[in-house]
Amino acid sequence: MTEQATGAHHPQPRPRSGGQSAPEHVTGAQSLIRSLEEVGADTVFGIPGGCILPAYDPLMDSTRVRHVLVRHEQGAGHAAEGYALATGKVGVCMATSGPGATNLVTPIADAHMDSVPLVAITGQVASKAIGTDAFQEADIVGITMPITKHNWLVTDADDIPRVIAQAFHVASTGRPGPVLVDIAKDALQARTTFSWPPVMDLPGYRPVTKPHAKQIREAAKLITAAKRPVLYVGGGVLKAGATAELKVLAELTGAPVTTTLMALGAFPDTHPQHLGMPGMHGSVAAVTALQKADLIVALGARFDDRVTGKLDSFAPHAKIVHADIDPAEIGKNRAADVPIVGDAREVIADLVQAVQKEHSEGQRGDYTAWWKDLDRWRETYPLGYDQPEDGSLSPQAVIERIGQLAPEDTIFTAGVGQHQMWAAHFVQYDKPATWLNSGGAGTMGYAVPAAMGAKAGAPSKTVWAIDGDGCFQMTNQELTTCALNNIPIKVAIINNGALGMVRQWQTLFYNQRYSNTVLHSGPDDVNPAARGTRVPDFVKLAEAMGCYAIRCEDPADLDKVIEEANAVNDRPVVVDFVVHEDAMVWPMVAAGTSNDEIMAARDVRPDFGDNEDD
Question: Which among 135, 200, 404, 563 is annotated as catalytic?
Answer without folding.
Answer: 135
